[in-house]
Specification:
This protein is of the alpha+beta class. The protein has a single domain, classed as Hotdog Thioesterase (Thiol Ester Dehydrase, Chain A, Roll), CATH 3.10.129. Helix content is 17%, strand content 37%. It has a seven-stranded antiparallel sheet, covered by helices on one side. A hairpin with a 4-residue loop joins β6 and β7. The two termini are 15 Å apart.
């Protein structure tokens, strides 16, 4: 697996964003992969990770599946929460591109606990950016 390029100040993957999640994302021919253990600072209710954090992780793992090929932005995302995510409970995130037509990508992602239970799933629609925006963003990538 190869680490997916990141922007160092990104909330999800930036290693210089002290308030962020600082997740490392990896890719191979099957899609993208990451692991993350939410800390108490990301709680919604006591001991439960905020749903927005789970959604952010799923959005990021899905867009990273596209970033191996293209720079894209989120157009639409649907998340299905199946189980609460406890703080301190490691998650494994995976995603892959399900469909690609022109500038449009459809992705699928999921988050699992170490015991294999799926805690959330997501689908996303992403739009590849203009060549100018892509060039601008690649100047800030840490790849």
């Amino acid at each position: 697996m190869k680490e997916v390029p990141k922007y160092s100040h990104c909330f999800a993957c930036g290693d210089k964003n002290k308030a962020g999640l600082q997740v490392k994302f990896y890719a191979d021919e099957n899609g993208t992969f990451a692991q993350f253990t939410p800390r108490a600072q990301f709680e919604g209710y006591k001991g439960i990770t905020h749903g927005g954090i789970v959604a952010t992780l799923l959005d990021e793992i899905m867009v990273k599946a596209i970033l191996t090929d293209e720079v894209a932005v989120t157009a639409e995302m649907t998340v299905r929460y199946k189980q609460p995510v406890r703080t301190g409970e490691r998650l494994t995130l995976t995603a892959h591109v399900e469909n690609h037509r022109g500038r449009f990508y459809t992705t699928v992602g999921e988050a699992r606990r170490d015991d294999g239970v799926v805690v959330a799933t997501a689908t996303g629609k992403y739009l590849a950016v203009s060549p100018e925006f892509k060039a601008e963003q690649e100047r800030y990538s840490d790849a």
